[in-house]
Amino acid sequence: MAEKPTCSCGANEPKRIIFPCAGVANVGQLTNLAAIQLAEEGYGSPSCIALLATGAETLVSGAKQADEVLVIDGCPVTCAKKIADAKGVPVAQHIVVTELGITKGPSKSYTADDVEKVVAACWKGEGKKNSADPAKKNGCGCGCGGTC
Fold it and tell me: How many distinct structural domains can be found in the chain?
């Protein structure tokens, strides 16, 4: 399947929200580091899963209106995904760090390669349930005159 060209002004880029689990183990720490790196690379905006758990109306509403929600959980307990589900936030992509071959351990037991592995999995869409990307829209419509 060919990639749809994006508008040169960036106006048709999907609005993505990233919820890292932020657990205390190394794999939880990796979710935070990956979310920060993804934001720096332009993938989306990290947000606080604890705040979502409180039911903060603006965050819940914003997450429900996002083009894509990415949840990065550290381990199979999937706390962040359970919080998103409980708040009715549709998760388009769910990554579990331990499923990427990284073993859960002490907080500082990770490498830069581990961070890269998580970031790459997100960019590749490894946590999507199907091949259709709901974040991709039909047509640009931004009016910039760029080629879409």
Answer: 1
